[in-house]
Every structure is written in C-alpha cells, then in structure tokens.
Amino acid sequence: MSTLPPAAVRDPAPSLPALERLVKEATGASGPVRIDAMEGGASTRRFYRIDLGNGRTAVAMFVPDAKRSDEVAKADDAERRWPFLEVRDLLADKGVRVPEVLGEACDDGFLLVEDLGDDTLARYLEKNPETRERLYQTAVADLARAQRALAPLPSSSVVASRAFDEDLLRWEVDHFREWALEARGITLSEGDRATFAEAASTLAQRIAAWPRGFVHRDYQSRNLMVRERASADPTLVWIDFQDALLGPRVYDLVALLNDSYQSFDRAFVEARLDEYADHHQLDALGRQAVGREFDTVTVQRKLKDAGRFVFIDRVRGNPGFLGFVEPTIEKVFGALERLEGDPVLDRLHAMLRRLL
Questions:
Q1: E strand spans, the chain
Q2: Reduced to 3 states, what is the DSSP secondary structure of residue 24?
Q3: CATH number of the domain at 121-355, please?
Q4: Which residues contact 165 (CB under 8 A, 6 or more apart)?
Q5: Deepest in the core among 7, 198, 276, 351, taking most CB within 10 A?
C-alpha cells in the first residue's frame, strides 16, 4: 500500500484507504498506486497526483472536513452536490473546457479528475513568453463566449443562489483595512477611518447596483491550465471555479488583466478590453463604460487581494503571497488615478498614498 509523502503529512487526516478505493473503483487500477503531493495554493484544499501505471495519471483533490468546509459549501446547508461538481457540469454543458471528473468520494473529501499537467498559464508563460498576447486573447474570447452562453443561468443553479451583493463587496474592502493596514501596524486616525468607510460603502453600493451575470471569481493565470495541441493553438482549461457566483461583467476581466501574479503595460490591457467589447458587440459608449467599470472593480478587488495576502500569512501561516502585496496596491493606485475626479475615491487615493 502507498504512503503519503512527507509534504502531505500536514494535511488534516486524508484517508489513504479511501483514496485508493476511489482510484481503483474509478479507473480499474489494480494493485498499489503511487500518490504524490502536488503544490497547493492559498486554500485549504490539497492535491495529489496518482500514478496509475502504464503512463496513466490522475489528480485527486482533497477537501479537509468537507461536510463543513467553506471550500465546498458556500451556498446553504441543503443537500446538494459539491459546488465544484455542479459548476463544472454547468460550464461543460455550455462548452467551457473544464477537467473531466473520473470519480467522486465526497463523504471522504475526495474527487478524482483528469490530470491536466503542471502548466498553469502563469507557468507556461515563464517558458513561452512569446505566446502571452495570443493566450490572453484566447482567455478574453473564452470569457466573453462563456458569459453569453451562461446568460441567463438556470434558477436552480448554485451560482444563481449567491452574488456579489453590497454586504460581500463591503466585507472584502474592509478586509484590506483590517489586514493590509491595521494588522501591519498602520494607524488610522478617525478622519482616515471615515474616509475609508465612505469609499468602501461607495464602491460596494456602486458595484452591487450593476447588472449581474456569471462570475468565475478568480479567473487568473494560476487558474487557467494550458493544453498544447499538435497542429493548433493551445487551449485553456478552467479550474478553481467552485466559488462562482453572480456579479458584474468586468469582474473576471479584472482578475485576468489586473492579475496580482502578472504585470502588463496599459496598452496591453486596453487592447484586451477593446477585444472584450468587440466580442460583445459594444459601441463606443459601451466600451467606455467597460473601462470605467473595470477601473472601479479593480479598486475593490485589488484592495481585497492585498488584504487577503496578509491574512493568508497571519492566519494560515503561509507567507508565500506577501511579495504580491505592494504590486497589488500599485494596481489600486493606477485605477484610482484613472478614476480621478470622483471626490470619494480621490479622498481614498490621497489617504492611501499618505499612509502607504
């Protein structure tokens, strides 16, 4: 029988017999299987590559304490499939490339999916930087196509049951104040607190009032897998979509084009926004609206991200994201500069420049 490698020992009680049973039932593998821990991300989920022999592999996702974990149950307590499975099927039905599911053992916290390799978009671009523009054009086109296909959503979908409402948006902005400012010892005066609260409320109210559609929620270079093809351009496979919800049309564009793990010049971003507008057949006024919405959501999303990176260090003991805090805040400053003339956001901008 296989044993989990040392890197996986820290996982909260993964059941090796349950995983081996799932693998054998789902794939027909006989005899012992090799299980190797894979590099994880910011969540509590863990991933393992399963060597099935004869050159075949699969990937297992383990969710600690799955029945109560917010990693899989973010809608309500009703008896339903894991959101990962439900959203995966929805996307696949609409023509979005997502991982194939090979087997389920949800009571044990495991899913078994196809092995997509190790090439996230971020990693692929490190080896093939010349493909950047082409692959980002593909990512924008895929997103626009999916948005059209997913409008409207089935009313019974878990995605339709949750949204970027005012409360959630405000909580995310406050996450920045709590972790990227206060937790790092940055003192806010009463005036600073009032300025921040006014801006947080304005951002949350403004964004929550816009029309809502399908949002992946983290559509960025570490959540797109690159699959090469012999005689055609590479394809992109969506992963980490279990938190999908309703939100503004530009939210996933912000995640993609203001990705904390990538750096683009303004001309590159504007070209992709032009392409997005073209895919949706927007006129000049529509394209202008997309740009302003993009900058507004950038302020909200990137403030949240900067706070989250500190939270992951302080609460989860993972300092690996701290290097992205300052670049992420710079993206906020860039968006605030483009939104100059909005009195509330101008006050936020001046305060953050002074404090940071």
A1: 34-37, 46-53, 56-62, 101-105, 110-114, 213-215, 224-229, 232-238, 245-247
A2: helix
A3: 3.90.1200.10
A4: 208
A5: 276
Structure confidence by residue, pLDDT tens digits, 3-54 = 443 333 344 556 678 888 898 888 887 766 788 888 766 567 789 999 887 7
Q: Which residue has the tokens 């863990």?
A: 46
φ and ψ at 11, to 5 degrees? Answer: -65, 140
Residue with the bigger pLDDT between 108 and 267: it is 267
Q: Name the superfamily (CATH) of residues 6-114.
A: Phosphorylase Kinase; domain 1 (3.30.200.20)
How many angstroms separate the most distant Cα atoms in the chain? 67
Q: Evaluate whether 6-114 and 121-355 have a shared fold.
A: no
CA distance 262 to 97: 23
Domain ranges of the chain: 6-114, 121-355
| 3-state class (DSSP) for residue 104 | strand
Indicate the length of the chain as a whole number: 356
Single pTM value for the model:
0.90
The per-residue pLDDT for range 128-172, each reduced to its tens digit, is: 999 999 999 999 999 999 999 999 999 999 999 999 999 999 999
End-to-end CA distance of the chain: 54
